[in-house]
């Protein structure tokens, strides 16, 4: 039976771009900014190295946490639920056999917000029995090696509630032609794809020997 991997994150974190990187025939719609493209969850087949296969699920992006308002019914201040969070929960509950959750966060300068930490906690509480890893995106401007971003930003990650020991990959999900044209870093795409594949395999098929 094929394994199921759900990619989750805030709108603009590169969820659909990561899906397209892992699933060559996905062609999931993407946006160069934080404009919402995905309004429904969808699964795509992905063939990793060594013949490992899985179903990768593109999901709706989470929004900023809902604003607080006074509930006269409950006579206290409550936080309004994010509509997209409810839609995501509905999709994840429908896909009962999930084996791995990948939480995307943007690693570009000034991109990380408190809401990324809050949404990380929400994702953990939604599916607390499913392994959760982190993929840091938007690192095309970061100096190599990309994985150094994690150690450079550990204090920020702790403030967001993301443990240092979380399994992760630090990547760019820009299309290869864009990396070649604007950054002269075409190999960065291949390396990023390999690192995410290795991360997935380390959880779902640990006997393959990847970290």
Average of pLDDT = 87
How would you write the strand order of the largest sheet? Answer: 2-3-1-6-7-8
Percent of residues in helical segments?
25-40%
Overall strand count: 8
Continuous helix count = 7
Radius of gyration: 17 Å
- Approximately what portion of the residues adopt beta-strand conformation? 15-25%
Sheet with the most strands, sense and barrel status: 6 strands, mixed
Return residue spans where pLDDT drops below 50 for at least 5 consecutive residues: none
Class computed from helices, strands and strand pairing: alpha/beta
What coarse outline follows from CA principal-axis ratios? Answer: globular
Order of helices and strands: EHEEEEHEHEHHEHH
Terminal CA distance reads: 23 Å
Summarize the structure.
This protein is an alpha/beta fold and 211 residues long. The chain has 7 helices and 8 strands; from the N terminus they run βαββββαβαβααβαα.
């Amino acid at each position: 039976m094929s394994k199921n991997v759900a990619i989750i994150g805030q709108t603009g974190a590169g969820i659909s771009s990561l899906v397209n990187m892992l699933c060559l025939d996905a062609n999931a719609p993407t946006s160069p900014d934080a404009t919402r493209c995905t309004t429904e969850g969808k699964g795509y087949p992905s063939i990793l190295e060594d013949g490992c296969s899985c179903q990768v699920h593109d999901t709706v992006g989470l929004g900023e946490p809902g604003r607080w308002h006074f509930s006269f019914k409950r006579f206290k201040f409550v936080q309004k639920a994010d509509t997209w969070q409810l839609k995501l929960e509905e999709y994840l509950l429908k896909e009962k056999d999930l084996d791995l959750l990948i939480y995307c966060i943007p690693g570009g300068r000034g991109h990380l917000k408190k809401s990324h930490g809050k949404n990380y906690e929400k994702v953990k509480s939604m599916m607390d029995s499913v392994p959760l890893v982190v993929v840091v995106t938007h690192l095309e401007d970061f100096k190599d090696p990309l994985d150094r971003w994690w150690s450079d930003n550990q204090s920020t990650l702790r403030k967001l509630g993301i443990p240092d020991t979380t399994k992760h990959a630090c990547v760019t999900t820009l299309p290869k032609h864009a990396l070649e044209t604007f950054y002269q870093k075409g190999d960065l795409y291949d390396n990023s794809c390999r690192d995410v594949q290795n991360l997935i395999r380390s959880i779902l098929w640990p006997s393959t020997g990847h970290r």
